[in-house]
Amino acid sequence: MLLLYPLICNIMDLTLWRKGVDLLFEKAEIYSRQRSKEGQYKYDDYTAGCCKSRRLHFFTGLRLRDGVGLVALLAAGFLLGRAFLLGELLPFGVALVAAGFVYHRESALAALIGAALGLCTVVSGWELAARMVALVAVGVAALAVPLHSALLRIWLGGAVLAVLVVTGTGYVAVTGPNTYDYVRVLFEAIFGALLAVAYGAAFGGLRRYATGQQVNGEQVFCFIVLLLSIVAAAGQVRWGMLTPGGILAAFIVLVAGYIGGAGLGAAAGAVIGVVPGLVFTVSPAALGAFAFAGFLGGLCRGMKRIGVVSGFLLGGTLLTVYLGSGRDIAGLMVETALAGLVFLILPKTVFTAIQKNMPVAGPWLATAQLAEGEQNSIKGRLKRWQTVFEEVSRTYDQVSGALDPQGKDTGWQSSIKEIKNMVCNDCVLIKVCWEREFQRTLKHVESCFAVAQGNGRVTVEDLDKSLSQRCARPRELIMGINCCYQLWRMQQFLGQRLWESRELVSVQLRGMRGVIENLARELEAGSDTWWRRAEYFKQSLKQSGIPVASLVLYPSVRGYEVEVAMPACTGKRKCIYDVAPLLSQLTGENLVTSHTDCVIWEDKDFCTFRLYPDLNYQLGLGLARCPGKGNDISGDSCTVMHLSDGRLSILISDGMGSGVTARSESETTLSLLQKLLKVGYSRDLAIRMVNSVMMRHCPDEDNFATVDMCVADLYGGKLEMVKIGAPPSFLVRQNHVQVIQASSLPVGIVDDINIFSQHSEMDNGNMLVMVTDGVTDAYPGNAENEEWITSVLREIVDLPPQEVAELILRLAISGAGEGRQVADDMTVLVARLKNSCIDN
């Protein structure tokens, strides 16, 4: 990014000069005979590093742009000077120095110093001295290259090749020659010569770019080579959980996605992911992670730069969690945030100039609006992506089945063979034990393995008497059995982990089907036709005095659903009494809310709700809660989530303990679960992903939360309960109370989490009561903690939901006794199903 700053300054200087403006500190000297015969001032192209009229003053008259350029060259030289190619070669630093002394002589000393400093961090001794000599020699040879020769590139590459071959072979000859070292020197010289030519072309392209000239494709390619070299080299430097290479790579992919959309973003991400592997070890998943993140970033280009950054962050975070790319989520988010900050503050003219001067970006540029035919084409492609994910998922299922550790042979034949070769191979009694008494010896050794499997190890006392009397090396035999048993355990463990990883990838690929289906819906909702209709409805609501912040139409089988975001009305139910009737009048549809009560239970500024056409049922909701142990903040969190096709989800989470820490855990759980469900992941997969994130959020601390989720289908009157470590819930039908309970651990404790779900039919007037464990444990003397709630619900079945919640909470608080504090956070949430045609 420092390399781009001098270019921007050059463009600004050139623009000001053409307008007749020159800054005082840019040219403090007055030159005589500046006019030409035509009476016009001559202009010295000071951006060309090899111009005779350009002079660099290191102590006085130094321009700000030149200072930043020196720092950029110094930093680039330091990174490239210490970067290895293929683990052994160091061609980058000398290539940069050579190109700098040919194309940018006044500033090339900074590149030489930076490369020397970089070498000092990776090599030492006589090798460091030899490479320092090579650096200086390359710089001197580059100064002798004729600048105006038609064979400039050949002279440059030949000079670098000759210097590296001479210095390298001389060092090898003195320190102990061998064929491999000579071949290594030759390859390093060849790569150095090629990179020097490429870097020189890149510097030439930068000069043309700075002076407003068109950059050709060859120079663009060479600049990309230089940029990728710096990215790969910066990947070896780490500051805590951050790497400069990661920040620069994220910035490049963001720019590519913003300029060229999803295609160029994915291409740039793929190149960024694979090229650094030539310099340092990189996970194979990095290629897919960067490509997918660049694809999502470019796909969100319609939402301007914020959309590009959000899409890139979303894609990178998801694949980091799922595919295990080796980078933690916090580091990825910080690196992306820093790159996004630079990306957001850059002026728009920079991107416009890149689009204009980069001919290779032209084919990737897309129009702002897609035609209807293009929309259908994209939908078809998305469906083909769904098929691809299904095929890959089936392939992983077949591979996972073949690797199932449960189906593998658990015998000890291979281990026994290894023990025979390791302990008994040179024993004089080998023919007695392993030929004449083979079956008896095999049986005794297998019994020793059985003992080791039960006790963890085997001792000499565990040997059979006949074997211990006959064996000449009993202690070596016992040691071999223990070693082979430990290796067998390790193989079993690694096989199990490999099988679990492939099984997880298969499940996640199947989950991508839902994401792509949701993406197709979002794409259709964002089409020009639907957008214009939504904008008309939004303006109509504003003209009626309803301050709508956003309005989105989602196509459905029954017409379309409307999602509205507006300032919270603090319980006045404007969504029910104002928005729904007006939109029903405008659309001609019977649009109703999924709820009959306010669902904003927190201090929020905005309210988001969804209107559905011709709902058969609605939910009346009531909430009551109080914090425990004298805390002002409850550790329980609850929320309502509006899903597609007339489904309403109610979620409660209870964090471990109480107070701020517990509240943070429960809110994090619900927030992440909501986001994953909204983008289209299935319920089970979303919960497993939340469990994985919570386990790795703070691995050194116990941090978990329960999940109690209810999904109500308001068209069919069906209810699905999902419980993970949550206490029982109560389904009330007239005077009958059904207890819904499950025994499972909360999220964030174990990898293999058990997800309990139960489907139930509901009718008008049926009521669901969801509580946290602080309520069920309010009367600890009872054998069954939920008995007192069941008996109370039979008596208050006809009360409104809010009154039911408040009454159960008061009874739970009274269970703590007079003057005693509530032991744990308490939350009671009541939902009653109602016919939508009945007056609320």
TrEMBL record:
Pfam families the record matches: SpoIIE, SpoIIE_N
Question: Any idea which GO molecular function terms this record carries?
Answer: protein serine/threonine phosphatase activity
Transmembrane helix is among the record's keywords: yes
> Which keywords fit this entry according to its UniProt record?
Hydrolase, Membrane, Transmembrane, Transmembrane helix
Domain (PPM-type phosphatase) spans 620-833
Chain segments annotated as transmembrane? 107-125, 132-148, 154-174, 186-206, 218-235, 247-272, 278-299, 306-323, 329-346
- Matches recorded under InterPro entries: Bact_Sigma-Reg, PPM-type-like_dom_sf, PPM-type_phosphatase-like_dom, SpoII_E, SpoIIE_N
Superkingdom is Bacteria
Name the PROSITE patterns on file.
PPM_2
Q: What is this protein called?
A: Stage II sporulation protein E
